[in-house]
Amino acid sequence: MSTAKKEYKRITVKTLVDMKANGEKISMLTAYDYTMAKIVDGAGIDVILVGDSASNVMAGHETTLPITLDQMIYHASSVVRAVNRSLVVVDLPFGSYQSDPKEALRSAIRIMKESGGHAVKLEGGKEIKDSIKRILNAGIPVMGHLGLTPQSIYKFGTYTVRAKEEAEAEKLIEDAKMLERIGCFGVVLEKIPSNLAKKVAESISIPVIGIGAGPDVDGQVLVLHDMIGMTHEFNPRFLRRYLNLFDDMTDAIAQYVDDVKTRDFPNDSEKY
Question: Which parts of the sequence bind Mg(2+) (predicted)?
Answer without folding.
Answer: 52, 91, 123
